[in-house]
Structure formats: C-alpha cells, structure tokens
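Person: Please comment on this record:
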Amino acid sequence: PVLAGMNGSAIENFSCVVYNIFLMNCTWQAGRDAPADTQYFLYWQNSRDDEEMECDLYVKDENCRNMGCIFQNVTIGTEKAYFLVNGSSNDSLIQSYDEYIDLYKIEKLMPPSNIRVKCDEIKNDCIIQWQRPQISHSNKDKCFKYEINVKYK
C-alpha cells in the first residue's frame, strides 16, 4: 500500500528475512522517481501491544542512503509484524510504504545440529541421528521435514 506523496517515490522490493534464530534483515530499493536526496526511515511493530520502533542499525548504500536494516533480539510472535518505511526529501513529499508480515513465514531455518552416523558393516546399514534446528517461534516440534542425501564413495 502506498500513501500520499510524489508518485514513484516510495521504496520498492521490500523484503525481510529472519536468520540465526533472533536476527532479522530487511532491505529495499529507492523509489524509481525519488529525488536524489531522499532518505528512508524504517519503523516496525512486532505486535499491536508493542511500541513502534525505528531501526537502530541501518545498512547504507554508497550515497549514505538507508537501504536496509539489521534487527537484533527479534522474537517471533503469533501476530503479523507491521513495517512502515517513510521518506524525506528537500524537493518533494515522499510516499510511505507499509506491509504486515508473518515473521515465521520469513524465517530461514538453521541446519540440524549434532548429526551422528553409526554404520554396521555386517548388517550393511547405518543409523543417522540429529537434533532439530533451533527456531524462534512456537509450534517448535511441528512441520519439520528432512531430506537425507547419501552418497557412496
């Protein structure tokens, strides 16, 4: 959704990913018609009960324009998180961009840990065991599927 301001000035290609259990990275591109001096600011709210917070660690491009944000200590709740990116320019009013995102849907899972392989040459079989990867949201033991690719030397 786009709010009031100059057409084509709102950010484009907004995308976020949660990784390493509690980190989140969001990125975007400047609006194609945004003035060169446009600076963008990201605000987010993890749930309706949380305060809206501005990004405190922006990722900048070569022109010192904010083009992303790294969040630390992110917890995934049951509600959609709300993201709002405002822009400012001396030349014109910049359109805002906002989006609601289910954080669990954008979590990049860690690999399984503590992988153990025990083979029995007499029985000609192997037992492979592992621990489920850590995740940051609830339903911790549901919906895991694993694929094992065994290559013989």
